[in-house]
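Reviewer 2 asked us to include a model.

Predict the structure of this chain.
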Amino acid sequence: MLTDDEKSFIIYWEKNREKDKKIVSKFLYGSPYGLLFALPILVAVIFHDWYKNMIYISPTLITLIIIGVLGIAVFYTLFSMQFKWDRNEQIYKELKFKQSREDAAHL
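Predicted model (structure tokens):
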């Protein structure tokens, strides 16, 4: 027997699965996580004066580091949102199988 939470998840996922599958949606909803992941690295590189033993970083090198860190943030964003979508899809398939098995048992 499906619980109310499981039934509400099935309804939610049937309504939102195609929308959440698009790459633009993944990027928009996941970008705060990616930027939160990359922010400490950017802060440490941009404000490098606090650590006196750190090597000199030229402005062109800072630009390259920022581009690299933003690339990592985009990758982290898309990867984590794809993982979340796959996890929700797997839960949805398991619940639909459970529901179909219960419906067959009631016949």
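The mean pLDDT is 89. The chain has one domain: 4-106. We have added this to the supplementary material.
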